[in-house]
Amino acid sequence: MPRILVSNDDGIHADGLAALHEAVRPLGEVWVVAPDREQSAASHALSFARPLRLKKLEPRWYSVDGTPSDCAYLGINHLLKDSPPDLMVSGINRGANLADDVTYSGTVAAAMEASLLGIPSVAFSLVSRRDFDYRHAARFARALVRQLLEGGVPPKLLLNVNVPGDGKPKGYAVTRLGKRSYGNDVVERSDPRGARYYWIGGSTFTHQDIPGSDCNAVFRDRLISLTPLHLDLTEYARLDEVSAWPIRGYRKFAPKFAAKAG
């Protein structure tokens, strides 16, 4: 029976986590390792500077007083170290993780950490800001996970999945990351003692019209977006440009670069 590790960034008690667990429960031996509180936008942080506490809530259900990446790390390297999971799934996030969101998202980061550790991973998000109904996202998660387990999971797979939240999706599309903006607002206020505090991020979300993007698929076409990701951030197109820079006082070496990974 395949082993499936489940995590998220909305916390161990989140409705989306329960929905994802229920969706994949018939497909294997499911373990849940999730943050003990909300860790949205925690990105790919690991807690190297303090100890972590792991709490068993029930069989194969654990909370961690750390980040989503901590949860993936502890789940794979500690709880399941004798028999690593065949697949890791993260979510279902309460809100979108589209375009540039993947660089902030704790949901995606948990899947990234698992992928770095050699475990194929999928991050699931529900694109909604109210009336969070996880049924369609959970149904798709079960179908996708079943396909991956039955068809053979590609090694180090990292998929980012976003499901429209306004009713039943028309279908799905394989997409690229788009471009999305939260605005540049900084709201300054005073607390009851007169000290200043700040809220960052605006309330207006915009996205560029990019053909084939996850944003277009979800917002324009009401399709589920499947975006394959990878963690090699090298900008290969600029290697020659940067190599041509003269930096005075230093000798430049010119190793031959290997072919682009993947």
Broad shape: globular
CATH-derived topology: Stationary-phase Survival Protein Sure Homolog, Chain: A
Which spans of ≥5 residues are poorly predicted at pLDDT below 50?
A: none
Distance between the termini: 30 Å
H-E string: EHEEEHEHEHEEEEEEHEH
Strand arrangement, major sheet: 3-4-2-1-5-6-7-13-8
Structural class: alpha/beta
The count of DSSP E runs of length 2 or more, i.e. the number of strands, is 13
> How does the major sheet shape up?
9 strands, mixed
Query: Radius of gyration in whole Å, from Cα?
Result: 20 Å
Quick synopsis:
The chain has 262 residues and is of the alpha/beta class. It is built from six helices and 13 strands.
Question: What topology does this entry show?
Answer:
Blueprint: E1 3-7, H1 15-24, E2 29-35, E3 54-58, E4 61-64, H2 68-79, E5 87-94, H3 106-116, E6 121-127, H4 135-151, E7 158-164, E8 172-174, E9 180-181, E10 186-190, E11 196-200, E12 206-207, H5 214-220, E13 224-228, H6 239-243
Parallel strand pairs: 1-2, 1-5, 2-4, 5-6, 6-7, 8-13
Antiparallel strand pairs: 3-4, 7-13, 9-12, 10-11
Helix pairs in contact: 1-4, 2-3
